[in-house]
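JOB MANIFEST
job_type = single_chain_structure
chain_count = 1
residues = 171
[input]
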Amino acid sequence: MIDWIKHINKPSPDFWKKYVAKFEEKSNRYIAISLESTGLNPKKDTILSYGAVSIINDTILISDSFEVILSENNNTEISNDVAVEMFVDFIENAVLIGYHIDFDVQIINEALEKLHCGRLKNEALDIEIMYKKLQEDNDSKFSLDELITIFKIPKSDRVSASEDAFSIALL
């Protein structure tokens, strides 16, 4: 819980200093995100892919999107450290939107801790929680596919984090 204490006197990387400085102003940008990982334990599993798309003034901006795909044994050109740095540079101070976003934020924070950074400072909204509040139904659980069906969003095969992020943006 208090792992951040380990980094108090350590210098932060430059990308982290730029990220933190962005929070001096409020953003009008929302970013729908989705991650794929090696498992469901943020402490020991790693991120395999990042997908994100921006939303500004209720408009999805495909031209302002982000995708990085890593392999499980990381034989790609981009390391996990570089990927999380690129992701943080992309999201800036935007409000994050996702499905079970708490897990995404936790696994990103674990990757950031390895780089001697703090935790993400972005506000995060979970679409399942928002839907349950809208329906005044705190007991049910809804999968991403169920939410897509409920809102009559055309289904794709959704085989990537980027496709999930786009579906989340449509919701």
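[summary]
The longest strand covers residues 59-69.
The chain has six helices and five strands.
exit_status = 0
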